[in-house]
């Protein structure tokens, strides 16, 4: 196969790929009506990115089925992170276009999540019945998490996405979704500056107070959940809808028990969670653990880079 040598890379890139890339770049150029002279030399200062949210999902399917569904079905995502070895990252939708990943959803009152978000799907088996009748969840590989963290960091930095707006699908659609599930390490992401977390010291103090004096009522939980972004009914009752929102909150911030119970620990975490930003300082850049294997992908093709 003929190819072109890229200096410093020591790798032959097929000429066909070079041509495809050139055509793709040409396709990105704006089109104007024939005969209209458009001057693009001046750029307005009053503008920003359309991207306000990053939404994390799992596929509940394998690599082949996930790629087929997200590229040929009636749902999509901007990125797909596989569980292959090495991990691949596919870009399926350009970031300046809407992917159909969030569905009916809401966050801080914003109900058009698809219009203002980047969706990242992770290949993962999701939930399944355990022998004791409870649910069990598939875990994520260290290589997957490293790839997702690198991707989220890059997207958040380029688009200025705030920590409280890096969310789970279950956060924005708690009545119908549970992904990416309780085994996704939200605290680890928050420690890296990629998400929100609560003040754990304050939460311990609040929990002791609630255990001594009693847990607040349903209206308090609903008001606090709304304060931190969730769409929740203001019924003043622990109805089924409110219980599902509490369970979604617990999956994110107290994954060891996410049964929707309005208990003292959940109330304490809610009270210790900032409305904006995170109570944790961002830490060092995440690196794969010993033995992890991550091959970066040529974004847009899914082809592994050398």
Automatic annotation (TrEMBL):
Residues 1-26 form the signal peptide. InterPro entries: Amidase/PGRP_sf (IPR036505), Amidase_domain (IPR002502), NAMLAA_amidase_2 (IPR051206), Peptidoglycan-bd-like (IPR002477), PGBD-like_sf (IPR036365), PGBDSf (IPR036366). It comes from the Bacteria. One of its GO terms (cellular component) is outer membrane. Keywords: Cell wall biogenesis/degradation, Hydrolase, Signal. Pfam families: Amidase_2 (PF01510), PG_binding_1 (PF01471). GO terms for biological process: cell wall organization; peptidoglycan catabolic process; peptidoglycan turnover. Its EC number is 3.5.1.28. Residues 281-306 are annotated as: Disordered. The keyword Isomerase does not apply. Residues 39-181 form the N-acetylmuramoyl-L-alanine amidase domain. GO terms for molecular function: N-acetylmuramoyl-L-alanine amidase activity. It catalyses: Hydrolyzes the link between N-acetylmuramoyl residues and L-amino acid residues in certain cell-wall glycopeptides. The keyword Thylakoid does not apply. Belongs to the N-acetylmuramoyl-L-alanine amidase 2 family. This is N-acetylmuramoyl-L-alanine amidase. It comes from Bordetella flabilis.
């Amino acid at each position: 196969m003929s190819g072109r040598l890229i200096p410093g890379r020591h790798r032959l890139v097929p000429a066909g790929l070079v041509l495809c890339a050139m055509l793709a770049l040409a396709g990105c150029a704006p089109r104007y009506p024939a005969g209209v002279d458009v001057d693009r030399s001046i750029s307005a200062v009053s503008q920003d990115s359309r991207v306000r949210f990053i939404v994390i999902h799992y596929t509940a399917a394998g690599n082949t089925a996930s790629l087929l569904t997200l590229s040929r079905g009636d749902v999509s995502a901007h990125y797909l992170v596989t569980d292959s070895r090495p991990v691949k990252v596919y870009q399926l939708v350009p970031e300046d276009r809407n992917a159909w990943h969030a569905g009916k959803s809401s966050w801080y009152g914003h109900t058009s999540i698809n219009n203002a978000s980047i969706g990242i799907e992770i290949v993962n088996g999701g939930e399944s019945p355990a022998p004791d009748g409870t649910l069990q969840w598939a875990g994520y590989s260290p290589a997957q998490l490293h790839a997702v963290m690198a991707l989220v960091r890059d997207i958040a930095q380029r688009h200025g996405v705030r920590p409280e707006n890096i969310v789970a699908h279950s956060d924005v659609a708690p009545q119908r979704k549970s992904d990416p599930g309780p085994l996704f390490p939200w605290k680890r992401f928050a420690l890296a500056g990629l998400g929100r977390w609560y003040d754990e010291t304050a939460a311990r103090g609040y929990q002791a107070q609630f255990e001594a004096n009693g847990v607040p009522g349903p209206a308090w939980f609903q008001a606090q959940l709304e304060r931190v972004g969730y769409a929740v009914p203001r019924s003043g009752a622990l109805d089924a809808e409110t219980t599902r929102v509490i369970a979604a909150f617990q999956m994110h911030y107290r994954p060891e028990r996410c049964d929707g119970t309005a208990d003292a620990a959940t109330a304490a975490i809610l009270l210790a969670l900032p409305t904006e930003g995170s109570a944790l300082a961002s830490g060092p850049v995440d690196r794969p653990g010993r033995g992890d294997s991550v091959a970066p992908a040529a974004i847009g093709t899914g082809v592994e880079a050398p």
